Amino acid sequence: MAIENNPVEVFDTVFNRNDTQLSSQLENDSLEARIFKIIVIGDSNVGKTCLTYRFCGGIFLKNPEATIGVDFREKTLELDGERIKLQIWDTAGQERFRKSMVEHYYRNVHAVVFVYDVTSLTSFESLPEWISECSRHSVGPMVPRILVGNKCDLRAHREVPTSHAQRMADGYNFPLFETSAKDPAEKEHVDSIFLTLAYRLKNHKPLRLKQPSESSSSLLWYQREHEATGCQC
Ligand SMILES: Nc1nc2c(ncn2[C@@H]2O[C@H](COP(=O)(O)OP(=O)(O)OP(=O)(O)O)[C@@H](O)[C@H]2O)c(=O)[nH]1
Ligand SMILES: [Mg+2]
């Protein structure tokens, strides 16, 4: 589901949606909501796709392929009686799959999630480079950033102690979360990571979602994936 493909074609092929289902979804989504763009960044293989899939689809995605360009996921939340739509950009960790997309990742972003793998010291040591790439792209200091250590279920293989990660997080003044996209017992914790961000973003300047135009294929893409992942939102 890479952006290099035509998103409409991809979803027609993969999920075989029909026009009636789609137009009813579009009607539902014509209700106004505040929408926020969250990008998920980090080395390849740390579990960005699995984490975002766990949050938006509620399940652990088995055998994910390396992300090419970006995959979009979406979840709508009701916070204090208000609709908040999180548009999550699951970015590619491999340089060759991301280089043409980097500018798009950071444009108008509302929050950034930096992911490392607790069983990979290398992925942890890459974080400063990801963090500085983000700053180089003019992401302002008021844009919330968080660190997420994934794959905590692999206890015997841990290479990054919590204390080291906490020290780095404190150095940047970012919140730190450790979790597992795979462990079903961690599902609520994964949700809470994104909920924490959503609550912080709630007070930010709103970007209103109105009835999407026919040509808004990327928005259509979000909506179709939203349906396909079975989000209850
Ligand atoms: N044990 C365990 N494996 C995980 C977890 N999350 C992801 N994985 C595995 O890690 C591998 C990479 O996961 P992805 O989600 O594709 O990683 P990614 O960061 O999206 O990688 P790129 O798309 O290449 O940037 C896959 O084999 C997943 O099954 C986790 O929490 N625990
Ligand atoms: Mg991926």
TrEMBL record:
Molecular-function GO terms, alphabetical: GTP binding; GTPase activity
Q: Gene of origin? A: zgc:101559
Give the UniProt keywords, A-Z: GTP-binding, Lipoprotein, Membrane, Nucleotide-binding, Prenylation
User: Topology versus the membrane, per the UniProt entry?
Assistant: Lipid-anchor
Q: Which InterPro entries match?
A: P-loop_NTPase (IPR027417), Rab33A/B (IPR041822), Small_GTP-bd (IPR005225), Small_GTPase (IPR001806)
Gene Ontology, cellular component aspect:
endomembrane system
The record's comment on protein family reads: Belongs to the small GTPase superfamily. Rab family.
UniProt keyword Hydrolase, yes or no: no
Q: Which GO biological-process labels does this protein carry?
A: Rab protein signal transduction
- Subcellular location field: Endomembrane system
Q: Which organism is it from?
A: Gadus morhua
Q: What is this protein called?
A: Zgc:101559
